[in-house]
Amino acid sequence: MTERLIVIGGDAAGMATASQARRRRGRDDLEIVAFERGHFTSYSACGIPYWISGVVPDRDLLIARSPQVHRESYDIDVRLRHEVVGIDLDRREVLARDLDGGGEVRERFDTLMYATGAVPVEPHWARTDAAGVFGVQTLDDGSALREWLEAEPAPRRAVVIGGGYIGVEMAEALVLRGLEVTLVEQSEQPMSSVDPDMAQLVAEAMRGLGITVRTGVTVTGLTETDGRVSAVVTPEGSLPADVVVLGLGVRPNTALAEAAGLPLGPTGGIRVDRRMRVVGIPGVWAAGDCVETLHRVSGQPVNIPLGTHANKQGRVAGINIGGGYATFAGVIGTAVTKVCDLEVGRTGLRERDAAAAGFEFVSVITESTNRAGYYPGARTMSVKLIAERFSGRLLGAQIVGFSEAAKRIDTLAVALWNGMTVEDMTALDLGYAPPYSPVWDPVLIAARKAVDALAETSR
Amino acid sequence: MTERLIVIGGDAAGMATASQARRRRGRDDLEIVAFERGHFTSYSACGIPYWISGVVPDRDLLIARSPQVHRESYDIDVRLRHEVVGIDLDRREVLARDLDGGGEVRERFDTLMYATGAVPVEPHWARTDAAGVFGVQTLDDGSALREWLEAEPAPRRAVVIGGGYIGVEMAEALVLRGLEVTLVEQSEQPMSSVDPDMAQLVAEAMRGLGITVRTGVTVTGLTETDGRVSAVVTPEGSLPADVVVLGLGVRPNTALAEAAGLPLGPTGGIRVDRRMRVVGIPGVWAAGDCVETLHRVSGQPVNIPLGTHANKQGRVAGINIGGGYATFAGVIGTAVTKVCDLEVGRTGLRERDAAAAGFEFVSVITESTNRAGYYPGARTMSVKLIAERFSGRLLGAQIVGFSEAAKRIDTLAVALWNGMTVEDMTALDLGYAPPYSPVWDPVLIAARKAVDALAETSR
């Protein structure tokens, strides 16, 4: 019998695994079956807010590779709308349910890739039958929301619950569609992936867009009227809503893994080794939002659900399953987003992460500009650096600014990846021309200020 | 007597030295005199093309710090229009000529900073009295050119000689002013700071702007009529010109240094140590376009005239003169520019440099996009990587593309600075969000392709 790989989950991690394995091993050598409970494969979940807003005009543009392409060009047996409901490690079988037809099939495997992604965090009150309440985690979720926004009566007032990336991006998307939008965030500031001093700039930008930002507010329930959501309940009063978007974060989708006895780590993600093998379970691999990985700065395991990691991890697993050798090197928590024309980038540890990891540190914020000050369009860029005390090693960085701000975080991410000190960073040979940078790049200015701050603390 | 620092040259390197030294040592401890033969201090020479074009509306915007500020806030005795014409190392004196008054003064020094910058490369035919021929090396040069462009009869046809950064930037500036522009370049392509395959994209963009680009053409002379330049003579015929801009590159301005016996290296630049002390000459320092420095990839000395290096070197020298400790770490040749909306970035070695340095290497070019392919405004970005054979170490990188292309070179520059291999680079945690990057950043895609190319060569 031909060796058989079964992939559970047909998005980034699963399909990257399948296609990399196929590149190295032909049909006669490896049979590949992929189960996906949704209607789509290999799509950009990160792109959903931009399709909701209309910036991206067509849903199908978000699909990187259709099931047809996987089937025809990669010879992968993709089974859509099939949810795997059981894994039997002894018999080397999965049990999959056809969500449309209702039947169940058992399929044997030699090798298993567990790539089920993440599921939304849902407080008890979010488990409602009221119409008009949406997550935006899958393309199916996004499709449902878009239909609701386009149906009559057209929703006028939106409440977005949760101010993380997806909440902030969805709030902007809904404003762009012309809705009145309130964002409710439990903590002090939205965008808590950056420190509060930087997040404040994001909150201001959101308010500038006309979004009502309510911070320090915990949602306690939803009100429905005639089967439709009508308000979001908080201790500070009710917020009328014709549509509610949940952006409370996600957690690894591990129910099936737990049932089968796969090991979970402290983050709740599946434990894998450097090659993406599930620890202690021969022949079983995992990748993407459902696994935990090494944070290279804290040295701790983390679960960071993001398409770019899922793709890289899937590629690593696929190369290994295909008989090659590859390892996943871990992450440093780099991320970028935007709110209208305000750009946000972050990498490494926030102050609270650095403290939790046991570091003593200094942090500095500098304001400079994205271009030479005299060049038209020059705008303020705030750069925050967190550096370890004494050693001066960069621990984390955050940027908030306008044009060409967000991706400047990559410069800092590569410095961080390589363990550079802020002193070393002042010497970096970065590109300079007036349309792109002051003669001292904002990154260099920040490094210089961090060096000065370190000198203060060592006195 | 108070110790005395004399600075020769009042632009980036000289004034950065002076102000850093002043930050650490007050007036009673160190007297600072700076001689500048021009009318300005601390200005952005790199900004001149943008003032010529009108993009930057006012010349004074290019001046980072006026002589008044240097005098009043930093207590530096700035003497404009004073050209130092002699250095007497034994008597510890300089001889300076007042270019307006005509007198000469002798001034003693304890410490000397030589920061005379660069002088244009001028073939014999460029030494002309004909009006209408301009370099654009100093702000005085730029002022003279701008006056010519604004005088009657208004020049209509411009010829720019030399297709380096300044030539390309000036050609664009003159087109933006409405002139008919021809760029004449001796080699195969303009923008030879990148390899010909990448430079070709720049040449196409220039032609798209309406610039006539003549490559492989060597200028042999100028024609003048009634004391004004009227044509540029080449073996392929005469090019009519009402204004000629020389962009043939620069060389270290070392005449005075040579006369005083300062040591020059193989690049023609002054030899300095890591702290910016002139090698073997106690009490004498040098920084900026007139010195040579270490190229960290080739291991060879180079002379790279660029404001960002001049500023960094001046800062290092000033810290040391001020009693602190700092070293200049060398350069890797990072540079960025633009032609209209086409952006160009480069770092490290070109193919020819890598070969000259003795490396065997592979090079790859990848085409991807600056944003997720489905995100509006996504445009092609070409990334070229040059990696050492066997080791896979990155040796150089070049990017040509549109929005957010040029400064992406910094990501590669930091990787190069840290000696990363292309294999290591495929793992980098770079920012991903649809408005800023495909899920595989162009840098990662290029690294993956380079890894594949290395695998081919090791077979």
From TrEMBL, chains A, B:
<dbReference type="GO" id="GO:0016491">
    <property type="term" value="F:oxidoreductase activity"/>
</dbReference>
<dbReference type="InterPro" id="IPR016156">
    <property type="entry name" value="FAD/NAD-linked_Rdtase_dimer_sf"/>
</dbReference>
<keyword id="KW-0274">FAD</keyword>
<feature type="domain" description="Pyridine nucleotide-disulphide oxidoreductase dimerisation">
    <location>
        <begin position="336"/>
        <end position="438"/>
    </location>
</feature>
<comment type="similarity">
    <text>Belongs to the class-III pyridine nucleotide-disulfide oxidoreductase family.</text>
</comment>
<dbReference type="Pfam" id="PF02852">
    <property type="entry name" value="Pyr_redox_dim"/>
</dbReference>
<dbReference type="InterPro" id="IPR050260">
    <property type="entry name" value="FAD-bd_OxRdtase"/>
</dbReference>
<dbReference type="InterPro" id="IPR036188">
    <property type="entry name" value="FAD/NAD-bd_sf"/>
</dbReference>
<keyword id="KW-0285">Flavoprotein</keyword>
<protein>
    <submittedName>
        <fullName>NADPH-dependent 2,4-dienoyl-CoA reductase, sulfur reductase</fullName>
    </submittedName>
</protein>
<dbReference type="InterPro" id="IPR004099">
    <property type="entry name" value="Pyr_nucl-diS_OxRdtase_dimer"/>
</dbReference>
<dbReference type="InterPro" id="IPR023753">
    <property type="entry name" value="FAD/NAD-binding_dom"/>
</dbReference>
<feature type="domain" description="FAD/NAD(P)-binding">
    <location>
        <begin position="4"/>
        <end position="312"/>
    </location>
</feature>
<keyword id="KW-0560">Oxidoreductase</keyword>
<keyword id="KW-0676">Redox-active center</keyword>
<dbReference type="Pfam" id="PF07992">
    <property type="entry name" value="Pyr_redox_2"/>
</dbReference>
